[in-house]
Amino acid sequence: MIPKTFQLFGAILLLFLIQLPNTIQSKPSGNPFGFIQRLEGCHKGESVSGLKDLKRYLEKFGYLNYAKNSGNNHANDDEFDDLLEGAIKDYQHFYHLKATGVLDNSTVSQMMKPRCGVPDVVRNGTNNHYHNPKSIHSVAHFNFFPGPRRWPAERSHLRYRFRSSVQVPGTENFRSICAQAFQRWAQVTHFTFEEVDANSEAEIEIGFHRRFHGDSDPFDGRSGTLAHASAPTHGRCHFDGDEIWSANPGPNEVDLESVAVHEIGHLLGLNHSEDPNAIMYARFSYGITKRDLGTDDIQGIRTLYGLQ
């Protein structure tokens, strides 16, 4: 006969084992940008918990820089100050929203969408709104990195290699998908691209990584930033391994080729476009494909390299 002490211990252990899976499953794993929803309606003069996180968000994507305003001490607090209002207005201008400086519903909704991790605004960069010489009514919305940054004329043949720190399901055809994505840019530029072995010398390196992965821009998990790439001539392109990637995306999956085409645009020197139809638009949605270069993308890359 089992002593009552052991019976009691066994019952407690069984209860613990039953409860444990539920505890693990209840661990939060939401949208990294979800905190913004709680800030809807905030405006200048208020102090609301979470505004310091919004300041970091706007700083990450190029709209806010407290370091250049040494007299301002609100970088790490929850005060809605003048600089934050101005940054929100800049964000609203970029995405063609009503520039109120208030966190209204349309602004919050836009901020919460999955996106590229490259900043929209690069300080001291070039925000170009070119008029098409063939039509006075046609305005381009492409942007360049500071400089602008471009590959030198003698580097028109670019080699790329794959190096990942994690294995990601659904990416078995990633090499052929990237080849297709590079070809889309090759068709409208003077560039040619060649895949080389992982240990070979290359101008471009592509891979999947999670969270902190050796650069200054850690990923944030699913539903936040999808990927990021560097401007010429650094040639780094990283995809977030926490996303659900696919060559034929379902409702909760990200299209590999669509994001690859976008990031290659950064590798060639284009920054984000303000045109929602452009490949270089920063925002993206699950379950869709957006692989074809738009007029703004083509005009931007040809302007950057003096191609007609």
Report on the architecture of this protein:
The chain has 308 residues and is α/β, with parallel strands linked by helices. It folds into 2 domains: 37-112, Muramoyl-pentapeptide Carboxypeptidase, domain 1; 143-305, 3-Layer(aba) Sandwich (Collagenase (Catalytic Domain)). The protein contains 7 helices and 10 strands. The strands form 3 sheets. It has a 5-stranded mixed beta sheet with strand order 4-3-5-7-6, covered by helices on one side. Strands 1-2-10 form a 3-stranded antiparallel beta sheet. Helix 5 crosses helix 6. Residues 4-29 and 124-138 have low confidence and may be disordered.
Quick structural overview:
Keywords: Calcium, Glycoprotein, Hydrolase, Metal-binding, Metalloprotease, Protease, Signal, Zinc, Zymogen. One of its GO terms (biological process) is collagen catabolic process. The protein is globular, with a radius of gyration of 23 Å.
